[in-house]
Amino acid sequence: MKKEFRKTRRPNGDGSLYYSANGYWYFAKRMVINGERKRVKTSAKTKIEAIRKFYEKYGDDNSLSIDDKNNLQINGVLIYWLMNVKRLSVSSSTLCSNLMVYRLYIKPYFENKILSNYKQ
Q1: H helices of 1-120, where?
Q2: In a domain, 54, yes or no
């Protein structure tokens, strides 16, 4: 399998995605777990599967709670839409590109912005 290269680097704290010699893709990110900062990672046969497994196991990006809709952040809605809606209609390489565009360009702009502030 040919190794793919990114044209730009990810921002600090955004995690890393890499291909290992054993044939698996790894997604790793530094997180605070039980008050301790650790580097955690997941592996899978495809890039998108490695990212999905990571956020299912460690992240709360895929969970949308009705109780928190007044404090719902725009980034949470966008990542939910990408991982649960858009993923069903595009190929894995397209979804990976969409996630890269989201993390590099959209996420920094909407960081910590609340959705209810933009309604109507």
Answers
A1: 47-57, 74-84, 92-101, 107-109
A2: yes
